[in-house]
Fold this protein.
Amino acid sequence: MVGRQWEGCAATIGAMPRCDFDCTSCYLPRSANRSKPAPLEALFEQLELIAASFGPWGNVQLTDGEITLRRPDELVALVRRAVELQLIPMVMTHGESFLRDPVLLERLVVEGGLREVSFHVDTTQRGGRTRARSVAHERELHPVRDACAELLRAIQRRTGVQLRAASTVTVEAHNAEQVGEIVRWTLSNSDVLRVLSFQPVAQVGRTRADGGGGVEALWRSIDAVLGADSADSNLWFGHPDCSRVVMGMVWREPGAAARFLPWRDVSDARSERFVADWLARWGGISMRSDSAGVALARASGVLLRSPLLVARGALETARWLRLRAARPAWRAGLELLRGRAQLRPLAIVTHHFMDAHELDTPRGAERCAACVFKAPIDGRMVSMCEINARGLREQLYARSTGVQTAGASAVAQLDSQDFARNS
């Protein structure tokens, strides 16, 4: 997909190293909470490098530790500058700041032009009012997820803007078999959620030795809820070992459980040919940041220049509806037009970050060379796995505090003592 439809994703670094949570899996070094956030001007320079590297409407995650701990005016300015540079910023947060002060999120939308946000909620977290105590099962955090979803709906009602929202989840051994609960919750709230992203733990930063549970086991739990084999519809970005993505639509109708309808079927040669032809002619086109008028003009241009390809697309969509929705396409279309059913886009993703020892293997070198998730370090874009596993993040933080980074053994000792104290 990269280079054909998607340009990859970047992230800020040093924007706010600190966090008011204490999680069992965290890629930040022990020095993070003693580090100063980068000045706004330095972050603007990062955004300029990202814009030059990723092009118009490239994706950028505004993140580091908990970025909502920055002063609100600075956070609004950071979002606004990203939009001015024709980037698509996504604020990455645990959500506590927005739940405590919904006006902050509304300011980012109205004053900054924010259109994408991601909430991280899982049982590895400790902190704030909503996750102050240890929680054994993911279903116990559904009230927090409900509060985040309702906040998104409230923002839409007040501003008229529908935020494209994601939910991210760290997967340790203890919650690997519980991800089905999160998938079911997401399907039921697909009116506000566009992406569900799982990250199996990597042994970097302050992450405790956990063992994760494995990517294949994770996807078996996901597939059990979806009722499908993800291998039939899998996409990936960068190196095949780095991610796994299933894109589709959620069909919702009264009195029935929400169903996930995957877009892709690798065994469907006709559909695969159409996708290849579409990408060859219109790969890279996007309406994510278009106003209604610009989107209409762009769609009209596509229709005028490729009427036969658009007609094929309409036929393929009708065929997809018949096959996936298990009913005639005309009937499914009528139910959608009458509002008796809803069809919402959803991508389910797993990101597989590397442990430190994997970087020095031939496979690790291949993955770094193919990386599509990078952050600016000293004027160049660097793989996030390298930043986390080679201590580059810790070195960057050390500059802000004026102290030398601790040796590996000292950091490991601090980590083990801290996790023993907090477990």
